[in-house]
């Protein structure tokens, strides 16, 4: 049985106040770089200097955070972000964040016939159009996760902020394919 690796953590929330993005974009931060191009993206993109974690902050005060490869790193970047906003502005923020989902990847340790996998997993919950995309999308209606399988045996599973649930999803897919000799 293969273990999934945690590739990306996605979260979001709000800082509790409206933000003047034009002013904030011209503020010097110690641990982040700021990019604001409202004609391209209406949010302020905030990148950490130490990791690949990125925060998109919007005028409404809502934000999303992505790119962390551990829960502790994601919370650490969030705390650092809140501290810098408090220290560099006169804003009295009341931030709240939740982890929304994890993106994981793994390998089934074998090649997969995706046409047969479509039948094994169920045509009503799979989508495979090799002319459009080389992977099979699997979205079970009774689960809050989805998977993408590739002929090489690589697999991506996301949709839940719980690695145990995602590992169970991997096991379910692996077992179901094995039952069909795939």
Low-confidence stretches: none
CATH class of the largest domain: Alpha Beta
Distance between the termini: 15 Å
How confident overall, as mean pLDDT?
95
Share of helix, binned = 25-40%
Structural class: alpha+beta
Number of strands: 10
> What's the overall geometry?
elongated
The largest sheet has its strands arranged as 2-3-4-5-1-6-10-9-8-7
Count of helical regions: 4
Number of domains: 2
User: Largest sheet at a glance?
Assistant: 10 strands, antiparallel
Percent of residues in beta strands? 25-35%
Structure write-up:
With 182 residues, the chain is α+β, with helices and mostly antiparallel strands. The protein folds into 2 domains: 5-99, TATA-Binding Protein (2-Layer Sandwich); 108-179, TATA-Binding Protein, CATH 3.30.310. It is 26% helix and 33% strand. It has a 10-stranded antiparallel β-sheet. Strand 3 and strand 4 form a beta hairpin. The radius of gyration is 20 Å and the shape is elongated. The model has no long low-confidence stretch (mean pLDDT 95).
Concise overview:
This protein has 182 residues and is of the alpha+beta class. The chain has helices at residues 21-25, 71-88, 114-121, 163-179, and strands at 5-14, 32-35, 44-48, 54-57, 62-68, 96-107, 126-127, 135-138, 146-150, 154-160. It has two domains: 5-99, TATA-Binding Protein (2-Layer Sandwich), CATH 3.30.310.10; 108-179, TATA-Binding Protein.
What attributes characterize this protein structure?
182 residues; elongated; TATA-Binding Protein; 2 domains; ten-stranded antiparallel sheet; alpha+beta; 26% helix
